[in-house]
Specification:
single chain, about 120 residues, alpha+beta, two-stranded antiparallel sheet, 3 helices, about 30% helix, globular
Length: about 120
Amino acid sequence: MTTALSYSALAEKLPAGSIEFVGNNQVKLNFSTTTESGSNLTLNASCVKGIVKLLQGLAALTDQVNEARVNAELPPIQFASQQLTGTPEMPEYEFTVRVKVDTAQFIENLDDPTD
């Protein structure tokens, strides 16, 4: 079980082919695969489903990391989480992403909570 917030670990939480290393220091997130839109995805298409699938993958990865950390007697991390809110008639997903910031360098130096 993974204890790292890596692209490889995230790829396991998304449909096959959603994340791939394409070489030359580049990682590609394929929203056509993530949203299972096939060839219908364009730049004018709604980004909601793709972003939600990505956030759901991050929340699932955070849960997996925390399960491994508890088993290793390490404290859990806070990174991505999801909640189902609203009412039964009008449910909504609510996502939270938390990242500590090194105040000496602010946004240029975000801390990975698993390090």
